[in-house]
Amino acid sequence: MKLHEYQAGALLHSYKISIPLGNVARTPAEAHQVASTFKSDGYVVKAQVLGGGRGLGHFKETGFQGGVHIVDSPDKVKDIAQSMLGNTLVTKQSGADGLPCSAVYIVEKIGIDRELYLSLTLDRAGANATFIYSKEGGMAIEDVAHDTPEKVHKLAVNPLVGLVEAELKEAAAKLDLSEYED
Predict the structure, then answer these.
(1) φ and ψ at 108, to 5 degrees?
(2) Rounded Cα–Cα distance for residues 93 and 50 (Å)
(3) What is the pTM of this model?
(4) Closest CA to 29 of 77, 69, 78
(5) Strands (DSSP E) along 5-103, which ranges?
(6) Assigned superfamily of 5-108
(7) 117-180 has which CATH code?
(8) Which tens digits make up the pLDDT trace of 9-46?
């Protein structure tokens, strides 16, 4: 199953997990309207395509750089949405054909003290769920994996046993989460 970021955000929100305020838009006017509902001094506009590397991508038709932009007004949100919507985002993961962008996700800009990377994927060969994580997180995790693969860790979850406390503690140590112990 693949989810757009806004869909994953809605799922997390439904379980009362704290995430930045955000909403999806499919037109520039709708993007402006969404941004206008936030009481924020900044906005992040994210192209919604089913692929990674959006921030470093470009739009094939126009050459517009980046599928993720931080701006400071609803008017700029509208301008960025205009540059993304209806165009094709080319990223390292998409290949030259790119991926169509028919929606943008507008979220409030929040202060970030630290970024971590965490994903959950199905490992077909191992027949299990596997967490992939790194304390080097952020938008360029593919570069981290390529340049310094030792900084990207995996935790396979045995479906008959589930999560094991000792393995979770080891993962927390690798993520340098000691300040959150208890």
Answers:
(1) -65, 140
(2) 10
(3) 0.80
(4) 78
(5) 22-25, 43-47, 58-59, 68-71, 88-90, 99-100
(6) ATP-grasp fold, A domain (3.30.1490.20)
(7) 3.30.470.20
(8) 999 999 998 888 899 999 999 999 999 999 888 999 99
